[in-house]
Amino acid sequence: MEHGGQESNIAKKEDGQAPRTSPQSRRSGRAGTQAAEVSGQAIGRMVEAFSSLPGIGKKSAERLAFAILSMPREEAFGIAQAILDLKNNSRYCTVCNNITEDDICGLCRDAKRDPSRICVVEEPSNILILERTGIFRGRYHALMGAISPLDGIGPEDLKIDGLIERLKAGTVKEVIIATNPTVKGETTALYLSKLIKPLGICVSRIAYGLPVGGDIEYADENTVQRALEGRREM
Amino acid sequence: MEHGGQESNIAKKEDGQAPRTSPQSRRSGRAGTQAAEVSGQAIGRMVEAFSSLPGIGKKSAERLAFAILSMPREEAFGIAQAILDLKNNSRYCTVCNNITEDDICGLCRDAKRDPSRICVVEEPSNILILERTGIFRGRYHALMGAISPLDGIGPEDLKIDGLIERLKAGTVKEVIIATNPTVKGETTALYLSKLIKPLGICVSRIAYGLPVGGDIEYADENTVQRALEGRREM
Q: Has the ipTM of the complex gone over 0.90?
């Protein structure tokens, strides 16, 4: 108890002396402000820059900034160079809108891939996620978004024309719509389905259901309903 | 059930045609390998660079890379520049080892801060976390690590000499040891305490106890024991 008692004295002393900053004033300002005050402008700017990335809050940004600071010089410069290269060299595939450094991406050029099936996704980054499964060996098409009337995004804002052109070439037999399982993604899927079916091409939608490793107890009723509807014979 | 039935046919077709990549082959290689194959070398290098940062796995690195790709050019270049500036301009304060762009950091130069109390931390980044509380208005000293015999780190590897020199100047009345609540941090605290007390300076240790907002049910017994020992009269 002696140790604790000493600390409580110290705490009292502290309370009396230091004007405690209010939570408001501590939280105000941009993400890097306090870091800049304590550890210099360069850290502050770094924290601010990292905070602009998705999923990176102030604390993560600070941890990253200090990590870069303690890295070997070449490694840190390598990260900066990778960012510059990425912006300078990457563009969208003229066929499918995948990210590539050439006019046409590696997946579109790969003759071993089945040209009779196209998987339609919202964003180029989704292609990477689908490729990870290793199960689909056809081609892709990224719409660069989804139909969202509330955000003022209509079909004309998406890369749908390019898709229809590809389909009219006649090689494609099936279009798998892998837009997100959201209202926007679903709206886009329905729109595309109505547009493509008249071309005599099979249109499918990826399955709704329980996520692998999930617990039925925690699934929302819409998901459970879809999982039931989509049941398969064993 | 019709929809589900259609999908099951499609799934069977897929199983028959595509040689499914084994989990091993999919997980092998460096973090950016698959991203590079699907979306180009620049994305791959970016994913690899980001994966070298703490707390950033392959998936987060990919999300960050795609976020940078869709950023305005100037914003992305700003992040790269912030990294370069950080490495080029930041150094350690010659007094307390805080991060600074000058010889002596802002906290050491601030005449309004109480020079009679020094808070000792393991890393310069800890200073920022303590400053955030707004409760301590004294000076700091970063040891640049903690004593860890297993890793071959002894007291001579830490910035302890500089601390003792500062204490011998005679202004300091209290040293608050805020090393981590770990075996290394505790060992370092004990070592410093034995070293500093003979100088006639009060040595205190930050409190162990339950974290604010935590649940006693989930606290480990060591923490609960320390919380009991450190109890304070209300």
A: no
